Amino acid sequence: MTEAAIAKENKQIARQYKELLRISYQTLTEEDKKLIRKAFDTAVDAHKDQRRKSGEAYIFHPIAVAKIVASEIGLDATSIAAALLHDVVEDTRYTLEDLREMFGEAVAKIVDGLTKISNLKKDKDVSLQAENFRKMLLTLNDDVRVIIIKIADRLHNMQTMDVMRADKQVKIASETLYIYAPLAHRIGLYNIKTELEDLGLKYTEPEVYQDILTKIKESKEEQDAYIREFSKVIQDSLDKEDLEYEIKGRPKSIYSINRKIKAQNISFDEVYDKFAIRIIYKSDPAQEKFLAWKIYSIVTDHFRPNPTRLRDWISSPKSTGYEALHITVMGPKGRWVEVQIRSERMNEIAEKGYAAHYKYKQGSSKEERGFEEWVTRLQEALENPDINAVDFVEQFKLNLYSKEIFVFTPQGDLKSLPKGSTPLDFAFSIHTEIGLHTRGARVNQKLVPLSHELKSGDQVEIITSDSAKPNINWLDYANTARARAKIKSSLKEEKKEIAEEGKAVLARKLKAQKIQFNEKTINELVVFFNLKTSLDLFYRVGIGKIDNQMLKDFASSRSNAFVSYFKNKIKKPSVSSDLNKEEITAKYDQLVFGKEEEKLEYKLSNCCNPIPGDNVFGFISVNDGIKVHKKDCPNALQLQSNYAYRIIQAKWIDSSQQDFVAVIKLQGIDNIGLVSEVTQEISSNMHVNMKNLNFDSSDGIFSGRITLVVKNNNILNTIIQRLKKINGIDKVSRE
Q1: Could you count the other beta carbons within 10 Å of the beta carbon of residue 114?
Q2: Which residues are catalytic?
Q3: Which CA distances in Å does 734 have to 265, 268, 609, 722?
Q4: Which protein family is named in the record (predicted)?
Q5: How many Å apart are CA 310 and CA 307, to the nearest integer?
Q6: What is the pLDDT of residue 76?
Q7: Per-residue pLDDT averaged across 605-629, rounded?
Q8: What is the DSSP string of 550-584?
Q9: Per-residue confidence band for 203, with pLDDT thresholds at 50, 70 and 90
Q10: pTM value?
């Protein structure tokens, strides 16, 4: 680089530092500024010879992360210093000891937590990513700020990912959507969650992202005008009440519009609440609640509310600490509009999450207790040694995005639970012992099954008994990670106890058969009975599933080597006979894998039924070889995030020789001759074979499901487009 360029870069670095101090959400003391300056100088020195892939000086990354931590998330000086230093131990000659001496224990502990996350050994046996997440969450023990700075680090990496290889982009974006966005949501960082989701979609489904982005830009002017029109109607009434407020329009995120389009199978134009209007008012703490309902009554005086869409998170804040009043009203031109009513304090908590609680802290606030409770619960899950990393990440995710319901204990205390919870989840949320001895439950004084889904406002009483204990069916009734983990570990304990007894029984029975009870024999038994571990073997003996006759068969097969050889020969094909025959593709493959475009054996996965022309990827499974999934398969994110090293690129080449099955759904207004028009279009005009037809008509509306045999995606899309043009048909989609 030329001297002029270096001077320019140094100026830019100095400018960024000044801005970092200026935009800090917390008020910085002189001590704080000294700490940040020292951290900044150390980071500049440590990274002086490093550059990012884009070519810019590496120091811009830690500064950007520190800026997100300072303004967007609003953390304190210790966190800002730790953010500036977050890559120093990992990438440079500075050690943790150096940082401890220079900056003290608090900063060193956070940097250590962040370094632990980055320096994970590459272990291919268990999913590397899942293990990473588990270790990352373990750093919550050290300091929750570790996770928050990690989220800021991920946000900046996502913002600057353009220069990376496409496969790396997909891996990082999947991981972001799978763990980091839900984590930001759970900590209450809604703005960051939204940005992470949008950026995640940008790299996992670029065409979809661009399409929605373009449509939002096209309709922006019209939306701005609509927000002005809406605001004008209520401004006079708000002004009459001498309220200090501002009204903001907020477009829905690209990710959430896309989620709605997919979930409800509608087009972009049919998404009715593409934006929300936010009324943010000034208030002292005593008046806050009163003013929120006052604004509510003013809005509903002018616009009719949708009674099913009132969300009162002021009386019962979410466990993330979020407080607001949400109503959906019928605005001008017959459009539904979501109106969010928040005080300035509530708005800061919604945007800054954890940090804002501390700014407004008066004693131990309700939100903080909720947050602490969540961290404690998470600790419990983390400390359960029996659960493997992938299961843990799955369980952890269950508790991240879950919508909440509020139920009452018999004494009238309010408990918050994830939506979809059952009495079992409620029992375990009160105490593990109550959960483990649950015998039944009453909801609103009526006996209900343990699988009963609780609703907000229910009063729940748990009936316990000393003799009650979990059984395997409980896993079907429990939905929260905590309940499931406790049930699994209780079942495991029971299994171990039975296995201990089974082991003693097996030793006796083998002795009667004059067979030595040793490791070699146990391994032979495990193979003979097609089991996985010796624990399975002892357990089956303990419950009587492996009886005397079966052990005699083993003894005779053991004494006859020829028979045993023969049995193994016969046994081998029986494994594959269980496989679904239709899942195995024909001898000629239309799919090629990897950069070299090799032809490999593969199977089409049942979860998303890809057909030629679909965007797909290969997943190397443990027992089933390569399974092919569509890129928008419901399981794609989880696979790409948790098992990135097992993903293999795949693309279709020639799909002319084979037929594939696809299902389309139709909906419309029933009229005579519609069915024959549909079948005529498919079989006569398109020459496509139909395997199955199912039409249902009720009250003038018809719905249909047709199973077609098609060559590829293009033919299927053409059929869908042509069916949409038939008079009376409202929606056509692929299942």
Answers
A1: 28
A2: 90-91
A3: 10, 17, 11, 14
A4: Belongs to the relA/spoT family.
A5: 6
A6: 85
A7: 87
A8: HHHHHHHHHH-HHHHHHHHHHHHHHHHHTS-GGGB
A9: very high
A10: 0.70
